[in-house]
Write a structure and sequence with these properties.
Helix content is 63%, strand content 2%. With 182 residues, the chain is mainly α.
């Protein structure tokens, strides 16, 4: 059961979403620091879909670790919820969003550090994961990342790792067959 503060954060956010008003950064920070997965999902929704409505603007360096943790956790600890109003993501949705972040930040001047952090987190999740987690990362993320020739070097180390080699080989076959030309 949620305590009053958690409920009020979610309730306050729902009212702001319905009213199409600005979202206070302090509310998003509170949702980010919560132990409640629904609140974390709401924070991620704000950061990924409503960034321009958050006031004052939040710094990417501050929010990126939360976003990476949330998405990796959505893959490694799938969260089932029948609530139609939930912002929780399925594991393959989270994998797709990780790819979007990687593609979006690849050419960004300050993206190198964030990309390196993201790759390390994906590597760890793959190596620690069971077969279903590894399959999600391979087919929901890596195959599509390797469709982009410029991203392939980021995962070349997989071909040398005994526990990652097969996934890399399969994903690279997919990536080459579905290559993005730009």
């Amino acid at each position: 059961m949620m305590d009053a503060e958690e409920f009020s954060n979610r309730d306050q956010l729902r009212e702001m979403l319905e009213a199409n008003t600005k979202i206070p950064a302090r509310l998003v920070e509170s949702l980010m620091s919560s132990d409640d997965r629904e609140e974390n999902a709401d924070a991620y929704y704000c950061l990924s879909q409503l960034w321009k409505r958050i006031q004052p603007e939040m710094e990417v360096w501050f929010t990126a670790p939360f976003v990476f943790d949330f998405l990796i956790r959505s893959i490694t600890e799938p969260y089932e919820n029948a609530d139609f109003n939930s912002n929780a993501l399925g594991s393959y949705e989270a994998a797709r969003d990780l790819l979007g972040i990687l593609v979006g930040w690849f050419h960004h001047p300050q993206g190198e550090t964030m990309i390196a952090d993201l790759i390390k987190r994906i590597d760890r999740a793959f190596l620690a994961g069971d077969e279903s987690i590894q399959l999600c990362i391979e087919t929901g993320f890596l195959e599509h990342a390797l469709e982009y020739p410029q991203l392939r070097p980021l995962f070349a180390h997989w071909s040398d790792h005994p526990e990652m080699r097969d996934a890399h080989t399969h994903a690279l076959e997919w990536g080459l067959a579905h290559e993005h030309t730009q």
